[in-house]
Amino acid sequence: MNLLDLVSGGKVAALIGSEWRLSVKNFDVVNPANGETVAQVADMGAEDAREAIVAAERAGKAWRKVSAKERARLLKRWFDLVVVETEALARIMTLEQGKPLAEARGEVAYGASFIEFFGEESKRMAGEVLPAPDTSKRLLVTREPVGVVAAITPWNFPLAMITRKCAPALAAGCSVVIKPAEATPLTALALARLALQAGIPEGLISVVTCSSPAGVGDVLTTDSRVRKVSFTGSTEVGKYLLSQCAGTVKKTAMELGGNAPFIVFNDADLDAAVDGAIASKFRNAGQTCVCTNRFLVQADVYDAFLEKLVDRVRGLTVGSGLDNDVTVGPLINAAAVEKVQSHVNDGLFKGARLLVGGQAHELGGNFFAPTVMADVTADMLVASEETFGPLAAVFRFETEAEALELANDTPSGLAAYFYTRDYGRVFRTLEALEYGMVGVNEGLISTELAPFGGIKESGLGREGSHHGLDEFTELKYACLGGL
Ligand code: NAD
């Protein structure tokens, strides 16, 4: 099997149950670096989604009876194949999503780690025996798979956002219908091919590709056979899907948008803070849910931090993700470029100061110049909206209390970061931040070993760690009497 067939410009089939299905209707997958069509993918609809659910229900009934050890063995084989195919997967991702190849390889490793971890974890899906109220009874608690899971995923991490859902779902004994983002269906299809090659039974994974999400999405969120919807994407769409899921009371996991603060206190190691800032802000061209949206820097170190940050930002290399040495690829589309520009324009209009960048990159197309804007204030758009692009917006603060108030002044609560060398301040800040994840003197926090997820309007549920497996199980309590 050659995965790179998927990006050879031809027509690509969706996976509905056990069938690779072509369609007379197709949609273009476009390389955001040059606007060229990478492939044409089958445009599936509501009926295809229903068939995928039927297949998932059927395959799931058999899969839940497969031993944990065997499930683990198959997941390990899938993991091994993903690792072996790192180069092909990374290339597919760069072609359809734009990120530099080195980052795409990193995403393959990160995405694969969930398959390995949850395969191992399936063997530890234990229940409980609880103390009974009297000696004639025994109380047993078991964990059972929730059933058919719908996974609706975004384009910014086309591989990892799928494995973060599919691996724990399969490990728990569930089946999955994936609806990948319309911009990045090829990575999803490549992953599914490898799963089948690994021996994961047909029907357990479907990939329902479509050009417009509403038809397939409505089926996945309203069909009573789907017992869980696991969504990663924008808060706006997440709220809509939650309301859709209410009708059949589905379990939901919602990994939604963020507005991460990155606080630099006056006692921080500024070089370490700038390293963290670059990783957290400019990775994936700033199109990361946990990426910093607001740098909050204490007045005494404000100028020194800005000087170091601007220096590093000038050293970033913008270009096609396929070119060596490129560190910042294109944004996903023209609308994304417009959004970054609107945040810059709004800030400058309201009194912010441009230090570098500020406009479309000279390469044109979807490239935006890495930008640093200082003297940002709470009334500017970037303070309340996720930019999702390479704009570092820097606020100045005077006191610790002011920083914490600014940091929490958002309905989002996904990730936050802060840099300090003061032991007391570490704990005060950590406890005060209203966020699901916090990087302390660290700009990169994602790992399969820890629970990933947000509070407030950033979502519900956790992915990764043993908590990520629990999300795909239901507790069943049995009271055994008459003993
Ligand atoms: P999006 O919400 O536009 O789309 C996400 C997915 O939802 C896509 O597959 C899309 O087709 C689908 N979708 C949209 N409307 C739908 C509908 N009516 N019914 C069913 N499906 C529908 O988000 P995006 O632009 O692809 O991704 C960027 C957003 O995702 C950002 O806000 C980012 O912060 C967030 N994100 C969050 C996390 C996290 O773990 N919290 C991770 C990555 C991205």
From TrEMBL:
Q: Record's superkingdom?
A: Bacteria
What keywords are assigned to this protein?
Answer: Oxidoreductase
Q: Where is the active site?
A: 255
Q: InterPro entries, from UniProt?
A: Ald_DH/histidinol_DH (IPR016161), Ald_DH_C (IPR016163), Ald_DH_CS_CYS (IPR016160), Ald_DH_CS_GLU (IPR029510), Ald_DH_N (IPR016162), Aldehyde_DH_dom (IPR015590), Aldehyde_DH_Superfamily (IPR050740), Succ_semiAld_DH (IPR010102)
The Aldehyde dehydrogenase domain sits at 25-476
An example Pfam family from this entry, by short name, is Aldedh
Q: Of which family is this protein a member?
A: Belongs to the aldehyde dehydrogenase family.
For this protein, the record's PANTHER family field holds:
SUCCINATE-SEMIALDEHYDE DEHYDROGENASE, MITOCHONDRIAL
Q: What is this protein called?
A: NAD-dependent succinate-semialdehyde dehydrogenase
Name its species. Marinobacter iranensis
